[in-house]
């Protein structure tokens, strides 16, 4: 997994609550059997004026001029400012894959849906929860100032504003450790293989019907 | 010390190891697999030279991409017309072959929507931890299991290690007491719950559904309720084990038999919250206050009783919420104050892992019997959740009732629940749907979804607009 230590990047808005994973990446693109290439279809239904199809050349499609991420001022953005309950809906990991492929490294919102939140960490994408009032303020400042860049320092757990002001955020110690070092969860868990085997042997004794029923 | 909740017990039973940072390794008993969220996980295993930790914990079936239309379906995997869909289903075939995973293939008797076939075959059982790369895995919690949806990285993680890295969730009890009125179903109960607590109300919680209404509810009804726990924000929903659970599980193909059955029943009888268990949050509803529900907006929390009106955004104090209501009304092509029963339907979809089991089809057939769909309704799709449900319905003659009413009887698949196969809404079309998500574009680009129960959907198909299934049933003199 890609490590995340410090990142400085242009902020862009996704100004609505309850952005669901169908909106982040519509289902027709989930037919891919790869992990990459979802970026051009991020927010497909909002971004383009036509209906997207898998495998299409998106550079030829009509862009929706009213969708903020299409504004020239937000091109190259890598920090997404969002609203409550971002990423609700399905468990599709294609949602963080699409955000990542488009170039986002961090998402700031007052709250996230559980599965999406979890999926982000598995893909080197950092979801940051901040107070709603602070998120409101970031939105305002970003609207007021073109080229509004935020620095995210995972080690210090801080978001740094262009004026140098800092905002602290919480992050789970284990997830932070994995993200800072770009660690692969599976490798880490397999270090505990003996514990898993011990548990499994006990379980097999207590509940034998859970084993070998399906073959 | 306070007693344990059902969730506490299931957690404790599966705890392999607690880590200092508050995370834990949780052992997974059953891992269900479908074609959409697994290819990248199998690929990951291959690249790392890993093998599944415990093959007998895996059960796979294709459901999202498989055609529902009989003639296309007859051609099997090779007959899937959409090339990208075909490749995905083929990839599942190949992966199951390469990794020696049990699969119910596209036209085999065990095939169906993954959340329908789990309980139906006994592949998912009380007391299990169940995962699947699909958020509606919460369905299996109805059996008294800890079941939740995971992402593709976690699919790979569970295949490789048999464990999931988890942080314990908080406990929520949603208690529905009293009795349900005639014509009010499990779907209405869960929509009413979501309407009350919102789509983020259960975020961070495992929800236990309890109370008299849940105790009296059939297993299939409990599955409908747990299925939509995720629409209330909770990864896991569950119901305590009781006699209804045991009667359901007994004699399922993969359920324990003989002496194992007796041992299992003894273990499962512990699977309820202790009387003195403490919950972090308790939500209460009264069964008799719940009316048939209809969603009007683009989030499952945007739901009202069929007797109500489309809400007015001006009544919303919170600016973000107001904007959300306005946007939803615009997308849905509805006006504030419009009566729900004035909403006309273009298509009707009865199916999905929420409502495609035999009881759902019986409820729809009871309404459709001897009736005809309205001319203004272009299409009514009835998509059974599994091959077994389809066979049972045909045995009972339900398929003929639907066909006589001008409905289409289809093959088991997810179908128009998310429109990954050929079944889709056109832009601007309104659909009465028994599925679980009314997000923008979910059932087709520009499509407008209204979530309802199977009876309400069938009644709407006949009337051409929403009607209160209770009045409708009285007129028809059916109970
Ligand atoms: S029926 Fe719908 S919600 Fe259920 S698994 Fe299929 S696509 Fe997902």
Automatic annotation (TrEMBL), chain A:
<dbReference type="InterPro" id="IPR033940">
    <property type="entry name" value="IPMI_Swivel"/>
</dbReference>
<dbReference type="InterPro" id="IPR050075">
    <property type="entry name" value="LeuD"/>
</dbReference>
<feature type="domain" description="Aconitase A/isopropylmalate dehydratase small subunit swivel">
    <location>
        <begin position="1"/>
        <end position="132"/>
    </location>
</feature>
<dbReference type="GO" id="GO:0009098">
    <property type="term" value="P:L-leucine biosynthetic process"/>
</dbReference>
<keyword id="KW-0100">Branched-chain amino acid biosynthesis</keyword>
<keyword id="KW-0028">Amino-acid biosynthesis</keyword>
<dbReference type="GO" id="GO:0003861">
    <property type="term" value="F:3-isopropylmalate dehydratase activity"/>
</dbReference>
<dbReference type="GO" id="GO:0009316">
    <property type="term" value="C:3-isopropylmalate dehydratase complex"/>
</dbReference>
<protein>
    <recommendedName>
        <fullName>3-isopropylmalate dehydratase small subunit</fullName>
        <ecNumber>4.2.1.33</ecNumber>
    </recommendedName>
</protein>
<dbReference type="InterPro" id="IPR000573">
    <property type="entry name" value="AconitaseA/IPMdHydase_ssu_swvl"/>
</dbReference>
<comment type="similarity">
    <text>Belongs to the LeuD family. LeuD type 1 subfamily.</text>
</comment>
<comment type="subunit">
    <text>Heterodimer of LeuC and LeuD.</text>
</comment>
<keyword id="KW-0456">Lyase</keyword>
<comment type="pathway">
    <text>Amino-acid biosynthesis; L-leucine biosynthesis; L-leucine from 3-methyl-2-oxobutanoate: step 2/4.</text>
</comment>
<dbReference type="InterPro" id="IPR004431">
    <property type="entry name" value="3-IsopropMal_deHydase_ssu"/>
</dbReference>
<dbReference type="Pfam" id="PF00694">
    <property type="entry name" value="Aconitase_C"/>
</dbReference>
<keyword id="KW-0432">Leucine biosynthesis</keyword>
<comment type="function">
    <text>Catalyzes the isomerization between 2-isopropylmalate and 3-isopropylmalate, via the formation of 2-isopropylmaleate.</text>
</comment>
<dbReference type="InterPro" id="IPR015928">
    <property type="entry name" value="Aconitase/3IPM_dehydase_swvl"/>
</dbReference>
TrEMBL record, chain B:
<dbReference type="Pfam" id="PF00330">
    <property type="entry name" value="Aconitase"/>
</dbReference>
<keyword id="KW-0028">Amino-acid biosynthesis</keyword>
<dbReference type="InterPro" id="IPR033941">
    <property type="entry name" value="IPMI_cat"/>
</dbReference>
<dbReference type="InterPro" id="IPR036008">
    <property type="entry name" value="Aconitase_4Fe-4S_dom"/>
</dbReference>
<protein>
    <recommendedName>
        <fullName>3-isopropylmalate dehydratase large subunit</fullName>
        <ecNumber>4.2.1.33</ecNumber>
    </recommendedName>
</protein>
<dbReference type="GO" id="GO:0009098">
    <property type="term" value="P:L-leucine biosynthetic process"/>
</dbReference>
<keyword id="KW-0456">Lyase</keyword>
<comment type="subunit">
    <text>Heterodimer of LeuC and LeuD.</text>
</comment>
<dbReference type="GO" id="GO:0046872">
    <property type="term" value="F:metal ion binding"/>
</dbReference>
<keyword id="KW-0479">Metal-binding</keyword>
<keyword id="KW-0432">Leucine biosynthesis</keyword>
<keyword id="KW-0411">Iron-sulfur</keyword>
<dbReference type="InterPro" id="IPR018136">
    <property type="entry name" value="Aconitase_4Fe-4S_BS"/>
</dbReference>
<keyword id="KW-0100">Branched-chain amino acid biosynthesis</keyword>
<comment type="pathway">
    <text>Amino-acid biosynthesis; L-leucine biosynthesis; L-leucine from 3-methyl-2-oxobutanoate: step 2/4.</text>
</comment>
<feature type="binding site">
    <location>
        <position position="414"/>
    </location>
    <ligand>
        <name>[4Fe-4S] cluster</name>
    </ligand>
</feature>
<dbReference type="InterPro" id="IPR050067">
    <property type="entry name" value="IPM_dehydratase_rel_enz"/>
</dbReference>
<dbReference type="InterPro" id="IPR001030">
    <property type="entry name" value="Acoase/IPM_deHydtase_lsu_aba"/>
</dbReference>
<feature type="binding site">
    <location>
        <position position="353"/>
    </location>
    <ligand>
        <name>[4Fe-4S] cluster</name>
    </ligand>
</feature>
<dbReference type="InterPro" id="IPR015931">
    <property type="entry name" value="Acnase/IPM_dHydase_lsu_aba_1/3"/>
</dbReference>
<comment type="similarity">
    <text>Belongs to the aconitase/IPM isomerase family. LeuC type 1 subfamily.</text>
</comment>
<keyword id="KW-0408">Iron</keyword>
